[in-house]
Amino acid sequence: MKRILVTGGLGYIGSHTVVELQEAGYEVSIIDNLSNSSIDVLDGITRISNKRPHFKQLDLRDKKGLSDYFEVHQNIDGVIHFAASKAVGESVEKPLFYYENNITSLIYLLQNCTKHNIDHFIFSSSCTVYGEPDRLPITEEAPVKLAISPYGNTKQISEEIIQDLCKISDIRSIALRYFNPIGAHPTSEIGELPLGIPQNLVPFITQTAAGVREQLSVFGDDYNTPDGSCIRDYIHVVDLAKAHVVALKRIIDKKEMVSFEIFNIGTGQGNSVLEVVHAFEKVTGQKINYKIVNRRPGDVTSVYADTKKANSELHWKAELTLEEALLSAWKWEQKIRNNN
Ligand code: NAD
Ligand code: UD1
């Protein structure tokens, strides 16, 4: 049975991926420093799978600690690397922290992979690398644009670092460029836990519905889209998690075409902010108090994935609907409110 190290495995996407890995028969070890997650997530994972993953609280920037970890745990067959800081606005305020956390962690991790002959590496990238796209839907061939934020830049640099390493080592890697992950596990045992005021749309909607926030601000209705609000590709986090399992299997089975591959992971469907608000209202019966405000600086008009490459090469496709994702997000929000 193969053992996969999941960094950031107690975070939002990591925790859902751990569950899918366990379901697919992998043993899972998690490293997380709990900087943006809670140890309780381990219990949530265990309740879903009836299997407690191995967990080590460790900061990936702790070079000695990480090296010791790999010396002790010689049984790792592959790595899925989620651990990173991800708040776009915060990265503008603290660029050095973002470069340090996201890049140093990656380098130390890859150093250990090469030292211990761990050749399978899946990386969490983002559609943010495409910036304002020239053409829609966005294919993997679309040019990577000058990053708007240090966060976005860390994803671009990370992809380049991995690609360079793949050229001269046995490491084979897949970078998954996520579009907008939303929703929670259908059991409501795990989900997104935003710290403070949510920056992302769906947690802000669910907190508004729960009465934690008074009003949702819709950032602009004067974009060049049918209803004037921005368009994104919202993907259910469970579908996204499954994409990691198939990507991992592809490189374990040596099915890759080149040693470093990139796949868009989205639904292929674009929805506007107002469509999401109205879909949420319809599926949950909750009215959302919202108002249209000015555009948010840095937002691009419209972004959605061309998923043909993932469909044909990974044999993966998003199966869950926007409505299912929004309902799961709402159930999760209710669950965490009831527990507090
Ligand atoms: P998250 O913050 O919920 O999870 C990241 C986890 O990594 C957290 O549990 C955090 O405690 C841990 N971590 C951070 N720095 C660490 C370090 N130095 N050492 C050990 N652990 C550390 O974020 P997420 O939404 O699950 O995102 C996972 C990955 O996907 C990130 O790389 C993120 O940039 C990328 N991504 C996320 C989105 C999104 O919308 N959520 C979109 C595109 C890409
Ligand atoms: C943002 C990041 C992106 C990151 C992604 C997931 C930017 C520019 N991009 O994407 O790099 O990968 O999060 O973490 O920040 N909206 C509102 N009101 C709100 C919140 C959002 O109207 O209160 C709108 C936004 O204008 C946008 C859409 O909802 O049009 C989605 O926003 P969000 O969830 O923040 O994701 P992105 O901006 O697409």
Describe the protein.
The chain is 41% helix and 17% strand. With 340 residues, it is α/β, with parallel strands linked by helices. It has a seven-stranded parallel beta sheet with strand order 3-2-1-4-5-6-11, sandwiched between helices. A two-stranded parallel sheet has the order 7-10. A two-stranded parallel ribbon has the order 8-13. Helix 1 (12-23) runs parallel beside helix 2. It starts with a strand and ends with a helix. The relative contact order is 0.14. The structure holds nicotinamide-adenine-dinucleotide and uridine-diphosphate-N-acetylglucosamine (UD1). The site of nicotinamide-adenine-dinucleotide has 27 residues, from helix 1, strand 2, helix 5 and strand 5. Uridine-diphosphate-N-acetylglucosamine is lined by residues 86, 88, 126, 128, 152, 180, 199-201, 204, 216-219, 230, 232, 273, 296, 298-299.
Key phrases:
340 residues; alpha/beta; binds nicotinamide-adenine-dinucleotide; binds uridine-diphosphate-N-acetylglucosamine
Task: Describe the SSE topology.
Elements (H helix, E strand, L loop, with lengths): L2 E5 L4 H12 L3 E6 L7 H10 L4 E4 L5 H10 L5 E4 L6 H6 L1 H21 L4 E7 L23 H19 L3 E7 L1 E3 L18 H9 L6 E4 L11 E2 L1 E3 H16 L7 E6 L5 E2 H12 L5 E4 L14 H7 L7 H18 L1
Parallel strand pairs: 1-2, 1-4, 2-3, 4-5, 5-6, 6-11, 7-10, 8-13
Antiparallel strand pairs: 9-12
The structure holds nicotinamide-adenine-dinucleotide and uridine-diphosphate-N-acetylglucosamine.
The largest sheet is: 7 strands, parallel
What CATH architecture of the domain at 3-183 and 236-265 do you see? 3-Layer(aba) Sandwich
User: Could you state the order of secondary-structure elements as H and E?
Assistant: EHEHEHEHHEHEEHEEEHEEHEHH
Strand pairing plus helix content: what structural class?
alpha/beta
Bound molecules: nicotinamide-adenine-dinucleotide, uridine-diphosphate-N-acetylglucosamine
CATH topology of the domain at 3-183 and 236-265: Rossmann fold
Q: What helical percentage do the residues reach?
A: 40-55%
